[in-house]
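Practice problem 4.
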């Protein structure tokens, strides 16, 4: 009978995905789950294990962007003019 080898990183990823982690997985998630900061206005990439989580974040972002776009919609039909003020 041959021995079964288990790929530990794969096993841990599986446990994280399905919420069945042990103490080692909890430690890994706690240490790697820190808040990442925006750099030069660029937010860090987010990875999700479930499509429902992605859909929720995308919907929230699109709602913010749609509201912002409505604020920036020009009222007048004429082209915008650049105003310069001398100091």
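Answer key:
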């Amino acid at each position: 009978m041959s021995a079964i080898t288990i790929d530990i990183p794969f096993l841990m990823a599986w446990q994280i995905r399905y919420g069945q982690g042990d103490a080692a997985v909890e430690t890994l998630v706690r240490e790697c789950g820190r808040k990442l900061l925006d750099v030069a206005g660029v937010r860090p990439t987010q990875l999700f294990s479930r499509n429902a989580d992605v859909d929720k974040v995308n919907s929230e972002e699109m709602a913010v962007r749609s509201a912002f776009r409505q604020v920036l919609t020009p009222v007048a039909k004429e082209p915008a003019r650049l105003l310069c003020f001398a100091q």
